[in-house]
């Protein structure tokens, strides 16, 4: 639960002093975001990485990965906490700019950037464009030449380290769409080296750095160390061949969070230690000055700060194949506001937050209101046996990739987002209405 969550004397839960029963009176489902909790996590990344970097004599920039959840309010909070904004699309870039974040503090990613995205990035003067393919080197250089500007760029490389969940795997082969492979099995230049050489040939491009992102929801930091060493090796190879010592390495995001009670998140200090000590080790071995560092956490900054608040509707006991009974608890949202259980089999925890119950726990599955049986919000959770229509149910750790991946399936309007802080609830994204959806319908 967000750090501001407490049971009040009525038995209801309040977050940051805002009673969820009162908040629900303005409509459910709704995403609730604990502003101080999210800001605190942003500071924790900034401080942990700044401390670790300072110990080895380098510096760090922390970019908040807007794909996890971005609104203008969130962009302002993150910038106020000293973070920059990582965008991956025109929508994210425009939102960060509209929030008043200086373009120099924004990065643009994307494996298939549109002309419009490249142009906005260059004309607004973003701090960096992360190049993802060889054709993009030429596209961005040509666009910069046409617009009469210089383009600060990074080259995204793939180290063969893929991480996520509890493990990482390291392979020589890449069969996915992102970045430029560092592997050169036939002895020729790797795609990563080829792209870096192409960047250095174009006078419109400033090579700021190399970028590596190895995965998401990573709990074991070892993969970060392996990837860091690999990219440091590439930096040294480029220096040997061209005399150019690339000034910065971005080691991406992917820091894992605890979705269920008892799970242990990857804390920023451990992640920082793993990355920075790998950086320093290789720097020492090769005798090269250390690069500046940047990282791009998304999920770990916003997921635990957010919950989704639903109202319980139909409650139905269902006999399962093994003869036992499972209670299906249907809520007023579902896979349209959280696709992660259906898409990834993601596990979540839920509780009744409108009252305290003395009833024994019973095995439940929280489902939504959509027209398919895969519309599951929480696969397995124990709820009080007297769970009933009208109860408020909160699902924890939904701040990341919930609203940002929401759909309007079944023409269900998307929930709004309410920020809570110091006893005050402030809507930061308006709840969509059926009229909003019909406004797109041209008849
Ligand atoms: N940087 C890059 C280049 C990325 O591709 C990503 C995530 C991040 C940073 C932020 O990663 P994070 O710290 O949030 O793990 N929809 C999926 C997650 C997709 C992540 C894609 N890239 C989910 O709901 O689990």
UniProtKB/TrEMBL annotation:
Positions of the catalytic residues: 371 (proton donor)
Cofactor(s) required for function per UniProt: pyridoxal 5'-phosphate
Residues annotated to bind substrate: 299, 340, 344, 372, 401
Pathway: Amino-acid biosynthesis; L-lysine biosynthesis via DAP pathway; L-lysine from DL-2,6-diaminopimelate: step 1/1
Top-level taxonomic group: Bacteria
Catalytic activity: meso-2,6-diaminopimelate + H(+) = L-lysine + CO2
Protein's UniProt keywords contain Amino-acid biosynthesis: yes
InterPro entries per UniProt: Ala_racemase/Decarboxylase_C, DAP_deCOOHase_LysA, De-COase2_CS, De-COase2_N, De-COase2_pyr-phos_BS, Orn/DAP/Arg_de-COase, PLP-binding_barrel
EC number: 4.1.1.20
Cross-referenced SUPFAM superfamilies: Alanine racemase C-terminal domain-like, PLP-binding barrel
An example molecular function term from Gene Ontology annotations: pyridoxal phosphate binding
Membrane-spanning intervals of the chain: none
UniProt signal peptide: none
One Pfam match: Orn_Arg_deC_N
Residue ranges of domain Orn/DAP/Arg decarboxylase 2 N-terminal in the record: 49-303
Residues that, per the record, bind pyridoxal 5'-phosphate: 254, 296-299, 401
Keyword annotations: Amino-acid biosynthesis, Decarboxylase, Lyase, Lysine biosynthesis, Pyridoxal phosphate
Keyword flag Metal-binding: no
GO aspect biological process, one term: lysine biosynthetic process via diaminopimelate
N6-(pyridoxal phosphate)lysine sites (modified residues): 67
General function of this protein: Specifically catalyzes the decarboxylation of meso-diaminopimelate (meso-DAP) to L-lysine.
Subunit annotation: Homodimer.
Family indicated by similarity: Belongs to the Orn/Lys/Arg decarboxylase class-II family. LysA subfamily.
Name this polypeptide is given: Diaminopimelate decarboxylase
Provenance organism: Serinibacter arcticus
Gene designation: lysA
């Amino acid at each position: 639960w967000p750090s501001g969550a407490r049971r009040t004397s009525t038995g209801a839960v309040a977050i940051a002093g805002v009673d969820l029963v009162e908040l629900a009176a303005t409509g459910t489902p709704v995403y609730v975001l604990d502003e101080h909790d999210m800001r605190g996590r942003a500071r924790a990344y900034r401080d942990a990485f700044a401390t670790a970097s300072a110990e080895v004599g380098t510096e760090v920039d922390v970019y908040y990965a807007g794909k996890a959840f971005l609104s203008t309010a969130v962009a302002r909070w993150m910038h106020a906490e000293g973070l920059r904004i990582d965008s991956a699309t025109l929508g994210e870039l425009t939102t960060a700019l509209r929030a008043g974040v200086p373009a120099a503090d924004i990065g643009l990613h994307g494996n298939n950037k549109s002309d419009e995205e490249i142009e906005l990035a260059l004309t607004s003067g973003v701090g960096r464009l992360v190049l993802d393919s060889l054709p993009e080197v030429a596209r961005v250089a040509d666009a910069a030449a046409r617009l009469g500007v210089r383009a600060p760029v990074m080259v995204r490389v793939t180290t063969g380290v893929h991480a996520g969940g509890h493990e990482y795997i390291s392979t020589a082969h890449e069969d996915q769409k992102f970045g430029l492979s560092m592997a050169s099995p036939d002895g020729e230049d790797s795609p990563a080296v080829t792209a870096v050489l192409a960047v250095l040939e174009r006078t419109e491009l400033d090579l700021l750095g190399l970028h590596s992102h190895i995965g998401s929801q990573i709990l074991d930091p070892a993969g970060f160390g392996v990837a860091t060493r690999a990219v440091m090796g590439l930096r040294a190879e480029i220096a040997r061949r061209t005399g150019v010592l690339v000034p910065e390495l971005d080691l991406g995001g992917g820091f894992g969070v605890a979705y269920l009670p008892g799970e242990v998140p990857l804390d920023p200090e451990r992640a920082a230690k793993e990355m920075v000590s790998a950086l320093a080790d290789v720097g020492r071995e090769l005798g090269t000055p250390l690069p500046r560092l940047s990282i791009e956490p998304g999920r770990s900054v916003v997921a635990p700060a957010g919950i989704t608040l639903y109202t319980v509707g139909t409650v139905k006991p269902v006999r399962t194949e093994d003869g036992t009974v499972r209670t299906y608890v249907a809520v007023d949202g579902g896979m349209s506001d959280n696709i992660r259980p259906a898409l990834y089999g993601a596990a979540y925890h839920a509780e009744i937050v409108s009252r305290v119950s003395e009833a024994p726990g019973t095995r439940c599955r929280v489902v939504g209101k959509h027209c398919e049986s895969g519309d599951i919000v929480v696969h397995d959770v124990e709820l009080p046996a007297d769970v009933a229509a009208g109860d408020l149910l909160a699902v924890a750790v939904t701040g990341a990739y919930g609203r940002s991946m929401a759909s309007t399936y079944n023409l269900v309007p998307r929930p709004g987002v309410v920020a809570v802080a110091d006893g005050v609830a402030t809507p930061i994204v308006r709840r969509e209405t059926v009229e909003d959806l019909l406004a797109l319908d041209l008849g």
